[in-house]
């Protein structure tokens, strides 16, 4: 009897002191920001706007120092407005995103405008399937690697060609997204613990990609201005909505049994206050356009 009790004690000791604890990472993500500089307060809706958005991100960074901040594209307006789009790029730069996928709206003021502003404010823009039409070379960095809590994370970005139905596609070519996924997962990169895809396409297309590529852990969709979340086993497909009205927040636990996801949409409301520095910049912008004479 003593022998079995001794074996039981040894077994408990082994479980308690040799089992590795789960690893945890935190993601905050946006998409379809549409250069929404401040909440419109129209129709009783006081959500959104970068002035409030910046404050909620800051509060999350205080609580989660290793937070990753990501965006799935369409952060500029749907129509040409250089001064507003220029300010939006500056504000996103100040927010210190870790990776930003490109949407078609980023080309709304033309390729030269986009490149000039990214030179002034070098956002971490990535795209795995936008290439120059002239030489088929990638226009942007294909992916970004991060390491958080000893977890190796690869973030890459794809845009669907049909996203450009209403905005001129300037001297670029969109490579087939599934071909690029296979290339990245199987050939281009070392083994990662977590693959994150910033997908500029609908969540319906994101679901198809998830089913075809179980290696992808997180797919953050954009373009269709919807809010969506679905967990399928070790995968999660999300889309944050529109106009910075909600911040998507995702906690990922990596355990021996796989990945566990805890997801929340946080309303970007006055509860978090307004970023005073952003407020000054936005107020200055509106003062300047009010003084413009034609």
Structure characterization notes:
The protein has one domain: Metallo-dependent phosphatases (Purple Acid Phosphatase, chain A, domain 2), CATH 3.60.21.10. Helix 3 runs parallel beside helix 4. It is built from 7 helices and 14 strands. The strands form 3 sheets. A 6-stranded mixed sheet has the order 4-3-2-1-13-14, covered by helices on one side. Strands 6-7-9-10-12-11 form a 6-stranded mixed sheet, with helices on one face. Strands 5-8 form a two-stranded antiparallel sheet. By secondary structure, the protein is an alpha/beta fold. The N terminus is likely disordered. Helix 4 links the parallel strand 3 and strand 4. The chain is globular, with a radius of gyration of 21 Å.
What's the number of domains? 1
Mean pLDDT comes to: 86
What is the CATH topology classification name?
A: Purple Acid Phosphatase, chain A, domain 2
Main sheet record: 6 strands, mixed
Any key phrases for this structure?
single chain; 294 residues; Purple Acid Phosphatase, chain A, domain 2; 6-stranded mixed beta sheet; 7 helices; globular; disordered N terminus
């Amino acid at each position: 009897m003593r022998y079995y009790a001794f074996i039981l004690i040894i077994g408990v000791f082994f479980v308690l002191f040799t089992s590795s604890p789960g690893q945890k990472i935190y993601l905050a993500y946006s998409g379809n920001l549409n250069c929404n500089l401040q909440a419109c307060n129209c129709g009783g809706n006081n959500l959104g706007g970068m002035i409030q958005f910046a404050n909620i991100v800051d509060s999350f960074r205080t609580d989660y120092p290793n937070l990753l901040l990501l965006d799935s594209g369409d952060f500029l307006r749907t129509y040409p407005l250089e001064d507003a789009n220029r300010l939006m790029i500056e504000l996103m730069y100040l927010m210190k995103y870790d990776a930003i996928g490109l949407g078609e709206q980023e080309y709304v003021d033309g390729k030269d405008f986009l490149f000039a502003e990214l030179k002034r404010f070098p956002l971490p823009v990535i795209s795995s399937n936008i290439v120059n039409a002239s030489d088929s070379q990638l226009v942007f960095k294909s992916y970004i690697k991060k390491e958080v809590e000893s977890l190796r994370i690869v973030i890459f970005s794809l845009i669907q060609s049909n996203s450009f139905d209403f905005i001129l596609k300037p001297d670029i070519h969109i490579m087939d997204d599934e071909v690029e996924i296979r290339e990245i997962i199987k050939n281009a990169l070392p083994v990662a613990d977590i693959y994150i895809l910033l997908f500029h396409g609908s969540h319906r297309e994101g679901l198809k990609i998830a089913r075809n590529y179980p290696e992808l852990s997180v797919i953050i969709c954009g373009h269709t201005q919807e809010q969506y979340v679905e967990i399928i086993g070790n995968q999660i497909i999300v889309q944050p909505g529109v106009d910075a009205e909600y911040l998507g927040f995702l906690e990922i636990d990596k355990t021996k049994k796989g990945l566990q996801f805890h997801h929340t949409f946080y309303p970007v409301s006055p509860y978090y206050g307004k970023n005073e520095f952003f407020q000054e910049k936005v107020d200055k912008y509106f003062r300047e356009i009010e003084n413009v004479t034609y």
